[in-house]
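**Entry details**
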Amino acid sequence: MLGWGAQRAVDGRKSNLSASGGECTISADKKATAEWRVDLGEILNINRIFIQYRTDEYSWDAKNGHASRFLGFSVIVSNTTEKTDGVLCFKDNNFTLETIPNSINITCPIFARYVIFYNNRTNRPFPAGYSKYAYNELCELEVFGCSKFGYYGENCSIPWYENCQLGLSDIKSGTRQSNIEGIEGQQCNKTHLLEIPHGDPDDLSSILYSFAPLFATLFVISFVINIIFTIRECRNKLRFKNQNKSKARNQQRVTADIDIHEKVDANTEYQELTEVKTTDNSIYDEIKL
């Protein structure tokens, strides 16, 4: 029995893009919304997402009936099954029947567990070329990323905390772009990007390892500041000690000068010359001539 279950979009096959090829997932008909998601099994470093849509093996152009169903789609990544908890990687607001590509690569450098494909036909009037109802007709969705937690980029060499705004946010404000109903803009920050399962020692070790350069820098700065304060304290102590010695020497000089004057004033063995009296007696006889 031919099935169009959700697993068809992640079976690695995309050689037959028709409904009868058994390689595409096809949602229910005449619905206002269509949603599909894949669980990566754990939070991984996503770099880009590849999408191949149904063509029914006809040329992909404005005449292909599935192009109108593809228009307006969104791709969200999340750490839960709820798209409202996630981050909007891409929202088609500009493609037309003539310009929408198939296949398409979406750059989305972020940590997440779930990838969600979403489309809706809820807000009338719809843009020109849009189908009346929402569909999910994915023939393949592939997620590419890095196996080493804490890094992303083409060569898995860019630490996440250096360029957390890349591709997902306004480069001036750091606010994530969000145009899908129910999803508000989120600030690009380390806390949001670093949501990991509790109790996983390997992930925790990787996180601590990624912060090693920062810790080393802070340690060096702290060490240098401590040396500077120690040198200043030693200089202040030496200056204070020298000042005390100088004060002691000056005090000794003043005390010595005061003692000299006091001894002179108190000495009674000497008399002023004007106080010496002469006597009439003489030890010499008058020499008579």
